Amino acid sequence: MTEAGETVNGRSARPTSKDVAQAAGVSQSTVSLVLGRKWTGRVSPATARAVQETAERLGYRPNAAARNLRLGTTRTVLLVIPTITAPFFGAVYIGAARVAARNGLAVVVYPPDDAGPAGSPFAAPQDAIDGIIASSMTLDALRGFGPAPLVMLDSGPAAAGAAPAVDFAVEDGMRAVVAHLAALGHRRFGHVAAAVDEWTFRARGDAAAAAVAALPGGTLDRAAGRIEVHSAKEAAGRLLDLPHRPTALICDDDLLAAGAYKAARARGLEIPRDLSVTGFDDVEIARALEPELTTVRLPAQELGAQGMSALLELLEGGRPPSRALPGELVVRTSTAPPPAGPG
Amino acid sequence: MTEAGETVNGRSARPTSKDVAQAAGVSQSTVSLVLGRKWTGRVSPATARAVQETAERLGYRPNAAARNLRLGTTRTVLLVIPTITAPFFGAVYIGAARVAARNGLAVVVYPPDDAGPAGSPFAAPQDAIDGIIASSMTLDALRGFGPAPLVMLDSGPAAAGAAPAVDFAVEDGMRAVVAHLAALGHRRFGHVAAAVDEWTFRARGDAAAAAVAALPGGTLDRAAGRIEVHSAKEAAGRLLDLPHRPTALICDDDLLAAGAYKAARARGLEIPRDLSVTGFDDVEIARALEPELTTVRLPAQELGAQGMSALLELLEGGRPPSRALPGELVVRTSTAPPPAGPG
DNA sequence: CTGAAAGCGCTTACAG
DNA sequence: CTGAAAGCGCTTACAG
């Protein structure tokens, strides 16, 4: 291993544009022009080729700090997400990072854990960024970040009014869930809600309520839990212990559905024979559950990718339009007609 | 929203140390000294205080690019992991990022998805980093990254020979699993192996084989699958279809165990009555499964944290020792004595 | 105790 | 077509 700062023969191990210039017998500015792809019409093709070859041979890579200082730019953007451990946000990150890298940008994730920016012991990276993409939060939570080009993801119309936004059409997804269950014959629903004050969950809850209300004879009870298996089990249990218990549990999230499975099993209810259960998101756990979970697939990676594209457009002075990405109902084996009988 | 480069009253919106100097009536070097905390004995306390107050009032933050250029440092390190979507690596990231932030370092994750560095379309971020932490890979996979201070995580003794390393004591963990099952009375084991050529999985497999071999009457069959539910189900199924089928399935990973659950259910086997199953890692899915999974908890966050600490030490010229973090057997309800009978 | 100056490695007018 | 020079905003000898 050779350390970055090490010198070989009294010379810096990492060549600069000056070194390339010297080796190629041209001026440093010519090197910069050529490698910055601004040479056509200003440098002869032969010289350009020589410079390129010399740079390649010496393994030259421009110094990012110098470039950033000169240009007043950092080529890095901040991705603000509630948590990186949830597979959903991992996918958002991948989508964003992929588009970013294609455009020579780096993505730094913040905050690195579940602690919010406020009161966080973490150094504030917002000093060295060109823009911000925030997912699944309110504009309010972004106050600590100061002014910077901003794109909001999965944050609803309020955020969309203040910044270019990419959302999911979660209401459509939820309506598809209710329609699917209604078509199977269900009328008594339980909503296992995420106890998280975010637009995306309010929208899911409102859409479920509206869709059930539009159903002749439809009823909906609700219990909220944290997005965590045991809290969800407890919430779902409350619904299942109702005197007139629901025949279908609509969960705001796949992990919540895992908790609903536990609550059902604890009561000797078999899914989907005695109880139908649905999730939302379609993360890996949906297919790990037994029976596999009927859920709404949210294109998380696409969300990140489109968010980054919008930020890129914003950075270039454009006005990217806000948009909504459709979800897709994925019917698996956790849903079936309600049990016949007195229910 | 105000863009970073915007000017107000013909003046750059973001103050520099020169602005602070002018406002405080001192030289720019004094500002730098004071804010860099190198002023004691060189600047009078009164002046220092005045500078600090002025900087605060103007909302001054040093320009990172200028600082990096001058210092030849970037204050960012690369975290190279196989994938960010696996909850395990999310935890590693959090641990590393937490320690990094406490020391004013940023962490950039690479590669942003499952594609390896080789042939990846992603820009190479290794041009602007101070060091690298790589988790769960071979030194070989790091060839593209050139020389940089390096710490290896969860990569075994071969890596530890070349760089400071933090590993898990996975062999101990696997021995604890076998001992636990043996104490329950199991003798016929199946090993659902991860089809991943990494030290950590080879070590798990070898430790399981050795521990079972040391058991009077112990037998071990093996089947490998990708770390993905359906592939795991298929691998576990092969083991369960053996003429003399195992009474316990030892899985290299919790997700593999989820597949084993499916294989068992598909054959009408009830866990743990007819079959015991164990996992490894203790990620969220372990508790989402029904019954909850007996597994080995690997302190992933601690791995990231200790890795970053080691890198910090390395960056300061030290020689951090390699070390191994103990796992912990977590006994839940997926393990029980083997069924009595001809088995 | 304080300031003027050099220089990190780039990009980009500007002059020729 | 090519080069000399300025300057981005810092840190750190150096001079006083």
UniProtKB/TrEMBL annotation, chains A, B:
Residue intervals of the HTH lacI-type domain: 15-71
Region (Disordered): 1-22, 323-343
Full protein name: LacI family DNA-binding transcriptional regulator
Coiled-coil positions: none
Keyword Nucleotide-binding assigned: no
Keyword Transcription set for record: yes
An annotated Gene Ontology molecular function: DNA binding
Alphabetized Pfam families for the sequence: LacI, Peripla_BP_3
PANTHER family cross-referenced by the UniProt entry: LACI-RELATED TRANSCRIPTIONAL REPRESSOR (PTHR30146), TRANSCRIPTIONAL REGULATORY PROTEIN (PTHR30146:SF138)
InterPro entries, sorted: HTH_LacI, LacI/GalR-like_sensor, Lambda_DNA-bd_dom_sf, Peripla_BP_I
Alphabetically ordered keywords of this record: DNA-binding, Transcription, Transcription regulation
